[in-house]
Amino acid sequence: EAGVAQSPRYKIIEKRQSVAFWCNPISGHATLYWYQQILGQGPKLLIQFQNNGVVDDSQLPKDRFSAERLKGVDSTLKIQPAKLEDSAVYLCASSLARSGLAGVHEQFFGPGTRLTVL
Amino acid sequence: AQKITQTQPGMFVQEKEAVTLDCTYDTSDPSYGLFWYKQPSSGEMIFLIYQGSYDQQNATEGRYSLNFQKARKSANLVISASQLGDSAMYFCAMRNSGGGADGLTFGKGTHLIIQP
Protein backbone atom coordinates (compact mmCIF):
# COMPACT_ATOMS: atom_id res chain seq x y z
CA GLU A 1 0.00 0.00 0.00
CA ALA A 2 1.43 3.35 -1.03
CA GLY A 3 1.91 5.89 1.73
CA VAL A 4 1.05 9.56 1.88
CA ALA A 5 2.80 11.42 -0.93
CA GLN A 6 3.93 15.04 -0.72
CA SER A 7 5.67 17.37 -3.11
CA PRO A 8 7.91 19.16 -3.38
CA ARG A 9 10.22 17.80 -0.70
CA TYR A 10 12.16 21.03 -0.42
CA LYS A 11 11.35 24.61 -1.34
CA ILE A 12 13.32 27.82 -0.89
CA ILE A 13 11.60 31.15 -1.50
CA GLU A 14 12.05 34.77 -0.56
CA LYS A 15 9.70 36.53 1.83
CA ARG A 16 6.54 37.93 0.29
CA GLN A 17 6.58 35.25 -2.43
CA SER A 18 3.86 32.62 -2.68
CA VAL A 19 4.26 28.86 -2.43
CA ALA A 20 2.05 25.79 -2.73
CA PHE A 21 2.40 22.28 -1.37
CA TRP A 22 0.63 19.18 -2.64
CA CYS A 23 -0.50 16.09 -0.77
CA ASN A 24 -1.95 12.80 -1.99
CA PRO A 25 -3.33 10.73 0.92
CA ILE A 26 -3.50 6.99 1.19
CA SER A 27 -6.20 5.65 -1.10
CA GLY A 28 -9.57 5.53 0.60
CA HIS A 29 -8.62 7.73 3.53
CA ALA A 30 -11.45 10.13 4.21
CA THR A 31 -9.68 12.45 6.62
CA LEU A 32 -6.69 14.62 5.73
CA TYR A 33 -4.61 16.87 7.95
CA TRP A 34 -1.96 19.53 7.40
CA TYR A 35 0.54 20.19 10.18
CA GLN A 36 3.32 22.76 10.52
CA GLN A 37 6.48 21.66 12.32
CA ILE A 38 8.89 24.45 13.21
CA LEU A 39 12.45 23.34 13.98
CA GLY A 40 12.75 22.04 17.52
CA GLN A 41 9.00 21.79 18.11
CA GLY A 42 6.25 19.26 17.70
CA PRO A 43 3.86 19.46 14.76
CA LYS A 44 0.97 21.90 15.02
CA LEU A 45 -2.34 21.23 13.30
CA LEU A 46 -3.24 23.78 10.64
CA ILE A 47 -6.33 22.30 9.04
CA GLN A 48 -8.37 19.09 8.95
CA PHE A 49 -10.58 17.92 6.07
CA GLN A 50 -13.27 15.26 6.11
CA ASN A 51 -13.65 14.30 2.45
CA ASN A 52 -13.70 17.76 0.81
CA GLY A 53 -15.15 19.67 3.76
CA VAL A 54 -13.20 21.57 6.41
CA VAL A 55 -13.64 20.15 9.92
CA ASP A 56 -11.14 22.31 11.82
CA ASP A 57 -9.13 25.31 10.63
CA SER A 58 -8.98 27.17 13.93
CA GLN A 59 -5.16 27.38 13.88
CA LEU A 60 -4.77 28.27 10.22
CA PRO A 61 -3.49 31.85 9.70
CA LYS A 62 -6.20 32.66 7.22
CA ASP A 63 -4.77 36.02 6.20
CA ARG A 64 -1.96 34.22 4.37
CA PHE A 65 -2.64 30.47 4.40
CA SER A 66 -5.28 28.67 2.39
CA ALA A 67 -6.00 25.02 1.71
CA GLU A 68 -8.38 23.03 -0.39
CA ARG A 69 -9.22 19.41 -1.01
CA LEU A 70 -11.09 19.24 -4.26
CA LYS A 71 -12.97 15.99 -4.96
CA GLY A 72 -12.04 14.74 -1.50
CA VAL A 73 -8.70 13.24 -2.51
CA ASP A 74 -5.61 15.40 -3.15
CA SER A 75 -5.03 18.58 -1.19
CA THR A 76 -3.00 21.74 -1.67
CA LEU A 77 -1.78 24.15 0.98
CA LYS A 78 -0.83 27.66 -0.13
CA ILE A 79 1.00 30.48 1.59
CA GLN A 80 0.70 33.99 0.13
CA PRO A 81 2.67 36.05 0.99
CA ALA A 82 5.28 34.06 2.91
CA LYS A 83 7.00 35.39 6.00
CA LEU A 84 10.31 34.41 7.56
CA GLU A 85 8.49 32.67 10.41
CA ASP A 86 6.78 30.32 7.94
CA SER A 87 10.06 28.41 7.59
CA ALA A 88 9.13 24.92 8.73
CA VAL A 89 8.34 21.40 7.61
CA TYR A 90 4.77 21.02 6.40
CA LEU A 91 3.43 17.56 7.09
CA CYS A 92 0.38 16.01 5.52
CA ALA A 93 -1.35 13.10 7.23
CA SER A 94 -4.37 10.97 6.46
CA SER A 95 -6.64 8.69 8.41
CA LEU A 96 -9.06 6.00 7.28
CA ALA A 97 -11.73 6.68 9.86
CA ARG A 98 -14.39 9.32 9.78
CA SER A 99 -13.56 12.17 12.12
CA GLY A 100 -14.82 12.00 15.66
CA LEU A 101 -14.88 8.24 16.11
CA ALA A 102 -13.30 6.68 19.18
CA GLY A 103 -10.49 4.17 18.81
CA VAL A 104 -6.92 4.30 17.59
CA HIS A 105 -7.55 5.53 14.01
CA GLU A 106 -3.90 6.36 13.59
CA GLN A 107 -2.79 9.13 11.33
CA PHE A 108 -0.30 8.20 8.62
CA PHE A 109 2.17 10.94 7.84
CA GLY A 110 3.89 11.86 4.62
CA PRO A 111 7.60 12.73 4.36
CA GLY A 112 6.92 16.45 4.60
CA THR A 113 7.91 19.53 2.63
CA ARG A 114 10.75 21.56 4.10
CA LEU A 115 10.15 25.26 3.41
CA THR A 116 12.87 27.86 3.84
CA VAL A 117 11.86 31.52 3.59
CA LEU A 118 14.79 33.91 3.06
CA ALA B 1 -7.66 23.67 25.57
CA GLN B 2 -5.58 20.53 25.45
CA LYS B 3 -1.90 20.55 26.32
CA ILE B 4 0.94 18.03 26.20
CA THR B 5 4.11 18.49 28.26
CA GLN B 6 7.34 16.61 27.65
CA THR B 7 9.95 17.75 30.16
CA GLN B 8 12.97 15.86 28.84
CA PRO B 9 14.51 17.71 25.89
CA GLY B 10 17.19 15.05 25.47
CA MET B 11 18.23 11.69 26.90
CA PHE B 12 21.29 9.50 26.56
CA VAL B 13 20.79 5.79 27.25
CA GLN B 14 23.08 2.79 26.96
CA GLU B 15 22.13 0.16 24.43
CA LYS B 16 19.99 -2.69 25.84
CA GLU B 17 18.81 -0.62 28.79
CA ALA B 18 15.17 0.26 29.29
CA VAL B 19 14.17 3.89 28.89
CA THR B 20 11.16 5.88 30.05
CA LEU B 21 10.05 8.99 28.20
CA ASP B 22 7.80 11.27 30.22
CA CYS B 23 4.55 12.80 29.06
CA THR B 24 1.89 14.66 31.00
CA TYR B 25 -1.29 16.02 29.54
CA ASP B 26 -4.10 18.38 30.38
CA THR B 27 -7.65 18.19 29.09
CA SER B 28 -11.17 18.73 30.34
CA ASP B 29 -12.62 16.11 28.01
CA PRO B 30 -13.56 12.78 29.59
CA SER B 31 -12.84 10.96 26.32
CA TYR B 32 -9.47 11.31 24.67
CA GLY B 33 -6.71 9.35 23.02
CA LEU B 34 -2.99 9.48 23.61
CA PHE B 35 -0.38 8.63 21.00
CA TRP B 36 3.37 8.27 20.78
CA TYR B 37 5.18 8.91 17.51
CA LYS B 38 8.83 8.42 16.58
CA GLN B 39 10.56 10.82 14.20
CA PRO B 40 13.98 9.66 12.96
CA SER B 41 16.41 12.12 11.41
CA SER B 42 14.88 11.35 8.02
CA GLY B 43 11.79 13.23 9.16
CA GLU B 44 8.90 10.81 8.80
CA MET B 45 6.50 10.39 11.73
CA ILE B 46 6.09 6.76 12.75
CA PHE B 47 3.16 5.69 14.92
CA LEU B 48 4.24 3.62 17.92
CA ILE B 49 1.41 3.13 20.39
CA TYR B 50 -2.05 4.33 21.40
CA GLN B 51 -3.94 4.55 24.70
CA GLY B 52 -7.61 5.40 24.97
CA SER B 53 -8.83 7.21 28.08
CA TYR B 54 -11.29 4.41 28.88
CA ASP B 55 -8.89 1.55 28.23
CA GLN B 56 -8.57 -0.55 31.35
CA GLN B 57 -5.12 -1.89 30.62
CA ASN B 58 -1.90 -0.18 29.64
CA ALA B 59 -1.15 -0.48 25.93
CA THR B 60 1.75 -2.60 24.71
CA GLU B 61 3.25 -3.01 21.24
CA GLY B 62 6.31 -5.21 21.09
CA ARG B 63 9.13 -3.42 22.94
CA TYR B 64 6.91 -0.39 23.55
CA SER B 65 4.56 -0.02 26.48
CA LEU B 66 2.62 2.93 27.77
CA ASN B 67 2.49 3.58 31.51
CA PHE B 68 -0.91 5.26 31.74
CA GLN B 69 -1.74 6.91 35.07
CA LYS B 70 -5.04 8.63 34.52
CA ALA B 71 -5.32 10.31 37.92
CA ARG B 72 -1.88 11.86 37.46
CA LYS B 73 -2.59 12.67 33.80
CA SER B 74 0.59 10.99 32.67
CA ALA B 75 1.26 8.68 29.73
CA ASN B 76 4.91 7.70 29.80
CA LEU B 77 6.44 5.61 27.01
CA VAL B 78 8.65 2.73 28.08
CA ILE B 79 11.05 1.17 25.59
CA SER B 80 12.52 -2.11 26.74
CA ALA B 81 15.93 -3.37 25.62
CA SER B 82 16.82 -0.24 23.68
CA GLN B 83 18.58 -0.54 20.33
CA LEU B 84 20.76 1.83 18.34
CA GLY B 85 17.91 2.25 15.86
CA ASP B 86 15.75 3.72 18.60
CA SER B 87 17.74 6.95 18.42
CA ALA B 88 15.22 9.57 17.27
CA MET B 89 12.83 12.29 18.40
CA TYR B 90 9.81 10.99 20.29
CA PHE B 91 6.55 12.90 20.45
CA CYS B 92 3.61 12.42 22.76
CA ALA B 93 0.30 13.60 21.32
CA MET B 94 -3.34 13.86 22.29
CA ARG B 95 -6.24 13.59 19.94
CA ASN B 96 -8.44 16.64 20.00
CA SER B 97 -12.15 16.14 20.32
CA GLY B 98 -15.32 18.04 19.75
CA GLY B 99 -17.38 18.51 16.64
CA GLY B 100 -15.61 15.75 14.80
CA ALA B 101 -12.27 17.56 14.94
CA ASP B 102 -9.63 15.03 15.89
CA GLY B 103 -6.31 16.52 14.90
CA LEU B 104 -3.41 15.83 17.25
CA THR B 105 -1.86 18.19 19.79
CA PHE B 106 1.83 17.36 20.14
CA GLY B 107 4.38 17.97 22.86
CA LYS B 108 7.78 19.46 22.11
CA GLY B 109 9.40 16.06 21.96
CA THR B 110 12.33 14.22 23.54
CA HIS B 111 15.52 13.58 21.61
CA LEU B 112 16.63 10.07 22.55
CA ILE B 113 20.17 8.96 21.78
CA ILE B 114 21.13 5.33 22.29
CA GLN B 115 24.83 4.82 22.94
CA PRO B 116 26.68 1.56 22.15
Query: How many separate helices of chain B?
Result: 0
Shape of chain A: globular
Strand content of the residues of chain B, in percent?
over 45%
| First-residue to last-residue Cα separation of chain A | 37 Å
Task: Report on this structure.
The complex is a heterodimer of chains A (about 120) and B (about 120). Chain A contains no helices and eleven strands. Chain A has about 120 residues and is mainly β. In chain A, the strands form two sheets. In chain A, strands 2, 4, 5, 6, 9, 10 and 11 form a seven-stranded mixed beta sheet that branches. Chain A has a four-stranded antiparallel beta sheet with strand order 1-3-8-7, with no helix packed on it. In chain A, strand 5 and strand 6 form a beta hairpin. The radius of gyration of chain A is 14 Å and the shape is globular. The mean pLDDT of chain A is about 90. Chain B is mostly beta strands and about 120 residues long. In chain B, about 0% of the residues lie in helices and about 50% in strands. In chain B, the strands form three sheets. In chain B, strands 2, 5, 6, 10, 11 and 12 form a six-stranded mixed beta sheet that branches. A four-stranded antiparallel beta sheet of chain B has the order 3-9-8-7, with no helix packed on it. In chain B, a hairpin with a 2-residue loop joins strand 7 and strand 8. Chain B is globular and about 45 Å long. In chain B, about 35% of the residues are buried. The mean pLDDT of chain B is about 95. Classes of the chains: A mainly beta (about 120), B mainly beta (about 120). At the A-B interface, strand 4, strand 5, strand 9 and strand 10 of A face strand 5, strand 6 and strand 11 of B.
